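Quick one:
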Amino acid sequence: MSKEGFRALLEAAREGSESAWTVIYRGYAPQVLGYLRANRAPEPDDTLSEVFLQVARDLHGFDGDERAFRAWVFTIAQHRLIDARRRFARRPVDPVADPPEPATATLDDAAERALARIGAEEVHRVLDALSPDQRAVLLLRVLGELTVDEVAGALGKRRGAVKALQRRGLAAIRRELGRRA
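Output:
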């Protein structure tokens, strides 16, 4: 999107344009949700909602281009993730069981779900080999497409620390994948 197009989109969103908010949400929500899920947010969908509520609440104070906006959104996501973990630590028991799967699922749907679950479990297994800081750095770099400096700002760390965490995290992933090969 051009600079002018992005500025127009933000201005329309500030004025309450539903179509502008739809573009913003559809453009950023999938990556933010992936970031939250990969970081094992206690309630990733709820946390995603909190992220975009804060984006809507604070958009009037944002000033920057599309790259800065992406970094800002992922910084908010990181902060809401920390808040969600703190809330969950205070109330770890979920008294409501997951609803049962609908009985009308076809065999193909079940096979696709099983393959998706195996893929997700493998990704989580590899990510679990990382420290929380390494995981946050790599996910912000890959899913958030943030620069080292943007990740440093989002996590409140120095640039050199982010680079070291990234290097160590990638080495840990290589070792973990090597064990499985």
